Amino acid sequence: MAWSQYQLILAATMVVTGSINTLSTKWADYLESEGSDGQIRAFSHPFVQACAMFIGEMLCLLAFKMLYYNLKRRRDGSEDTHELTRGNREFNPFILFIPAMCDMIATSIMYIGLNLTYPSSFQMFRGSVIIFVGMLSVAFLNRVLVGREWTGIFFVIIGLAIVGVSDFIADDGGIAHSRNNIITGDLLIILAQVITSVQMVYEERYVAGLDIPALQAVGWEGFFGFSVLGTLLIPFYFIHVGPPFNNNARGTLEDFVDALVQIRNSWQLLFSIFGTIISIAFFNFAGISVTKEISATTRMVLDSVRTLVVWLVAICVRWQMFHPLQVISVFHVQLQRTHDFIFITKFSLSDSWIWWLAVRHVSLQQCFCLPMLVSCPWFLSETSLWV
Question: Taking the model in full, what pTM does it have?
Fold first, then answer.
């Protein structure tokens, strides 16, 4: 089944904005600017960057409200039938507070990890979430995983091990990151996925059945995340920490004053932060639209393509050096492709679990280095026949 021009635009928007989100965040980490103490240093403010991401998510709530009231003005009931506004709009927003806090903690830890490691590793290690989601689903949701699903988790672990070994033995001469920083960053990203898995299991149990419009849900989580993390920036300003987490004017956990001064003194930094905000907003909108217009499986495949784009750009701009183990990852992905396809498409789009997973910006396939490098066009054309 051929895609329409609108569907192609949505798919391209999702891949481009998703890639820009990771790349703009990492670009900011490499930029240097004069801080509040007059010293020129790299921008190392992961909590401020996390706040920027939550502002982007809040824009989804603004977009939802604008669309809803525009449809309501028609007085034809279209606000109850439009795919982006229909559903349970009258709910207690605080039902999303706990997942928002999980998202806040996980995002902050991931951005600290991204500051210490490569952007492609950041993308790939995020895929470890499927391991922890599977285990927590068995423990708390009484889900029974069949053999092929345990096999899939096993292959995910192998893929992550390959990426980890590649990071460990890769030697770029300290151009980008020290080996200790890389290992620390990778472990922090994996730790963040444990928290993300708690968020997803909670959402499946308490939120997925409420039929909340996806844009509204993402927007409220962004609101709660920004409100709480923005408040925590005040005590973080006074908490002194050691390296490699104290690269700011005061040597504290987060110096938001120093961050604002650095952004003011560098138009590149301002541009990168703005890119983070806008890209996460459009990425969420495009991802939700792809799920509705095409399929949840296609969204996950496109999210995998995003990992490929991030890896290629990181190589091209020399944020990391190429290593032969990355080629091994390619062959590993091709062997795993068929299994993941069966695993994902065994759920229908109407199932609350796969739907809620689809509206989150976490993909089952993000752990793989170069998914669909050879077979992506074929795979994309086939997904609409299965879902």
Answer: 0.79
